[in-house]
Write a structure and sequence with these properties.
Thrombin, subunit H, S-adenosylmethionine:tRNA ribosyltransferase-isomerase activity, QueA, globular, about 25% strand, QueA-like, S-adenosyl-L-methionine, QueA_dom2, 2 domains, single chain, 6-stranded antiparallel beta sheet
Length: about 350
Amino acid sequence: MRVDLFDFDLPPENIALRPASPRDSARLLLVSGDASLRDHCVRDLPSLLRAGDVLVFNDTKVIPAQLEGMRGQAKVGATLHKRLGLRQWQAFLRNAKRVREGDRIDFGGGVTAIAGPRDDEGGVTLTFEGEEPVELLLERAGRMPLPPYIASKRPTDARDRSDYQTMFAREDGAVAAPTAALHFTPELMAALADAGVASETLTLHVGAGTFLPVKADDTDDHRMHAEWGRIDQATADRLNAARQKGCRLIAVGTTSLRLLESACDADGLVRPFADETRIFITPGYRFRAIDGLMTNFHLPRSTLFMLVSALMGRDRMQAAYAHAIATGYRFYSYGDSSLLLP
């Protein structure tokens, strides 16, 4: 399909630079299979879902994966995006032309790394020196890796350490937040439980590739980035049992959805999974694992807008986004949410 079919104009004032406070006060647009659009608040979720529904969350934890350093007299920026080993990460570099294989980059605070070969995704392998766990080094020298559309408008600050982390964050490894779950609070989870809505968690470490633009003119020519995920046997069993009872599985975030669909077999059963996924969902895809999706509003021409168009139909999502823009919904990572129920 032509990528320009997924384009739309977004006024800059619709881009959220801070999250709603409290988190569950964000707006929520309900998009239903009957083509209706209804304006709600995230706190309305218990009344919008059914008893027996299962919300599936991503428990990945964002690490401070953005680093600023020096290679000699040259400034170099690094955004880690994929772990390769105990001390090795793939990274996208700013001023990458100034870095050659074997160069040492000093990120300050005693944190140094040796640049390795370039990879086929445009990044460089960094091997961190010393014996301290890399996670400790990042806590000392790194910053939260805010998306480019926020970082270009304001500097990262101490508040982002908590704002850009979900209440479910447990497994270190993401360099971008599973942002649909940023809207949830303990109070909202308690209200959902009282309404008979269950929850499960899985792990998909979101990579910086999620922000890479689609440069191809046709979706067939786009190479999807890889992200590592895991669903254990017990979780898969509970999800399958819920569906066999007629309950709906509703992914909270496109990351949860992509992992569930990657782990699902042709018979609609979720299997245990521990691997990378490059699943690229565009209109025409037949969903097997999920019955709905809660997600924020995505970038034009992005793989994620293609995904929601595959779930609900491109024309319907273009209409939903036009409504959201016209009525002042806030877009992207810190923005408002939508509930898509085909």
